[in-house]
TrEMBL record:
GO terms for cellular component: cytosol. It comes from the Bacteria. This is Putative 12-oxophytodienoate reductase 1. Its cofactor is FMN. Pfam families: Oxidored_FMN.
Length: 356
């Protein structure tokens, strides 16, 4: 039986175990998107993971969603990431950058640009904008058909910069209500051109973004995260099994490094997607943020259902040595939500390995 502690060959990377650190926003970058120096310590502390996926990184200024998140669209941002990735590698780890374009989940007070989206449909939730607090989400500007390829290129350009910054690869964020899922979703994509309407139209942006990133840095360095049927940021999706089966079938020929799927729909649908996908399949058993965190038992359950790798988010915040805690049955600490995004080192680099 497959174990969380078995090695796994992911493209050119040999992972020493099947535990993945999931991407988690920490909101500790400078206002210009330059990652902080302490990020090197934070990620290196967690280098025992088979693979680390970084916090969401905006591929362009227009794509920034939250305040104080890092970018990969300027030379200064690339230079700031280099010691971070080097620290992970020095500690024996592997790290992908998650490329996250917020789409309509953005505000001019954060990025200095009006957000763009598949359609001009506002988010019905307030957004945190920094010093000005929570403000109503603006109606995004709908991308013209001619503009969509530019947003596709943003993912490819950021993928190249990620490699320059020392990342082992990139993960495109196609989950949790951000731009790629906005194209996938039936309530945020009301387009009538080639990027909307039918299932084929709504999956087109995701496929083109993945293809562009793969062309830029090699398919074995590109993953895609999905949350089928998830409702974060007011997302609604019709006919999830048909929709995501079509997406998986369209992506399969690209030879991507992996699919990273959150448990946001029925188990039988996810198992069917696993069977339809020819490559590495990562499951995040915690799904959307809720009362239940992923644990070892859930990970082992999904390995038995055919997943290759299991990702953990919140469990990694307070347990940088999560793999060893799982392996030896040590208790897990619980993180303080007040420290997730507030800045500073508390709750960021202050958690340590288990002390006997």
């Amino acid at each position: 039986m497959t174990s969380l502690f078995d090695s796994y060959q992911l493209g050119n990377l040999t992972l020493p175990n099947r535990v993945v650190m999931a991407p988690m926003t920490r909101a500790r970058a400078a206002a210009d998107g330059v990652i902080n120096e302490s990020a090197g310590t934070y990620y290196a502390q967690r280098a025992g993971a088979g693979l680390i996926v970084s916090e969401g990184v905006q591929p362009s200024l227009t794509g920034q969603s939250n305040p104080n998140t890092p970018g990969l669209h300027t030379d200064e941002q690339v230079a700031a990431w280099q010691p971070v990735t080097a620290a992970v590698h020095t500690n024996g780890g592997r790290i992908f950058a998650q490329l996250m374009h917020g789409g309509r989940v953005g505000h001019p007070d954060v990025a200095g640009h009006h957000p763009v989206a598949p359609s001009a449909i506002a988010l019905d939730s307030p957004l945190f904008t920094g010093p000005r607090g929570r403000r109503a989400a603006p109606v995004p500007r709908a991308l013209t058909t001619a503009e969509v390829p530019g947003e596709v290129r943003a993912f490819a350009d950021a993928a190249r910069r990620a490699v320059d910054a020392g990342f082992d690869g990139v993960e495109l964020h196609g989950a949790n209500g951000y731009l790629i899922q906005q194209f996938l979703s039936s309530n945020t994509n009301r387009r009538t051109d080639a990027y909307g309407g039918s299932v084929t139209g709504r999956i087109r942006f995701a496929v083109e973004a993945a293809e562009a990133a793969a062309d830029a840095i090699g398919a074995d360095r590109v993953g895609l995260r999905l949350s089928p049927g998830g409702h974060v940021w007011d997302i609604a999706e019709d006919d999830v099994p048909q929709h995501y089966t079509a997406l998986v079938e369209a992506l399969a020929p690209l030879g991507l490094a992996y699919l990273h799927v959150l448990v946001t729909t029925e188990e039988d649908t996810l198992v069917a997607l696993r069977k339809a996908w020819p490559g590495a399949f990562i499951i995040n058993p915690g799904g959307q943020i809720g009362p239940q965190e992923g644990d070892r038992a859930l990970g082992e359950h999904w390995l038995a259902q055919g997943a290759d790798l299991i990702s953990y988010g919140r469990a990694y915040l307070a347990n940088p040595d999560l793999v060893e805690r799982f392996r030896t049955g040590l208790p897990l600490h619980t993180s303080d939500p007040d420290t997730w995004y507030q800045g500073g080192l508390t709750g960021y680099t202050t958690h340590t390995s288990y002390q006997h």
